[in-house]
Amino acid sequence: MIEGLISFSLRNRFLVLLVAIGLFAWGVHSVRINKIDAIPDLSENQVIVFTEWMGRSPQIMEDQITYPLVTNLQGLPQVKYVRGSSMFGMSFVYVIFNDDTDVYWARERVLERLNYATRLLPEGVTPTLGPDGTGVGHILWYTLDAPGMDLGEQRALQDWYVKFGLQNVPGVSEIASFGGFQKQYQVTLNPNKLIYYNLSVPEVLQAVRNNNNEAGGRKFEINDIGYIIKTTGYLKSIEEIENISVKTVNTIPVKVRDVATVQMTGETRLGIFDKDGEGEVVGGIVVMRYGENADEVIRAVKKRMVDVAKGLPEGITFNIVYDRSELIEESISSIKTTLIEEMIVVSLVVIIFLFHWRSAASIIIQIPITIATSFIFLNAFDITSNIMSLTGIVLAIGVIVDNGIIMAENSYKNLSHRFAELNPEEKK
To answer: What's the pTM?
Structure first.
């Protein structure tokens, strides 16, 4: 077969040249569109199911949340195994699929099974899917440089403006906020007063819920004009919560302020985010969607930050604390420099070793064509240009040259023997 291929190539040199030029052009195009990252994504093909049930111990979470979800998610197609983890108030279930399974097909299968498994969970508990990112999807971290603004206002600005502005960037799976205080109304009950007024905690909770609601009426017409009737009942201040009536005792209403203390404060935190030892900060983590080009996503996020910054209050700016694009550029630049240096050195060695420019040229020309062609296969198998893949291409240059030298020497040897067997007249 090899002899037939060589004979065909010798008889159709122009066709072989056209194929080589076509592969080189296709390879150059593949280099331009190939995804770029600093490190390869070796994480498993997984879907994360997150469930929150605050105030419950890890054992309760394991028995009533994690175990029912794990047992019901094990029968999904193309699943390798299911892992579960329980902690205080939170449950994580990791569904690991086969590597060749489409991640969005896997998420659909998990979501379908959750519709059935949810009825096995306690009332009010709803499991949710994690973002469609991977373990190396954290591509950019930023903080808000907001002098003079308290942490609660910074977190509100991050959650209700900055996050929504950056989350619709193509390739971004999630903007995870961190730091600061999440504002909330806290009603601290006094047990002694509850006993005195013969009230229970659920009664106070139900009273607050019933008074934090809107109700729609109906439409009526006056003078051929239609009016829509509705009531606005959402709580807007501490005073409104304090004035909520829980029950009536001897024609006297017992209000929330009689049995509890209402205050505006932050949600209970398990830690803080400190920057350079100078104090707490608020910011976000940009999580890249599965299979996206990290370099392009980072550029798009930075470009959107410029637009989002125009709507921030005066004096507030973005401060990028982690940017993978710097690592990507340095890694790719280092490998590119090494690749060019190796191509030059190998070409010089081939020329000196063979000392025949036609033979050397036939070998050297294979190097750029083979390297360009390799990117066609990188795109076909969805492999990014990273340290490992580019290093493999660099190491393969020696193999390419070795084969070319062996074939050139073998051809030269056979031609020499053939020439020596000719008679003087044929040599002329």
So the answer is: 0.77
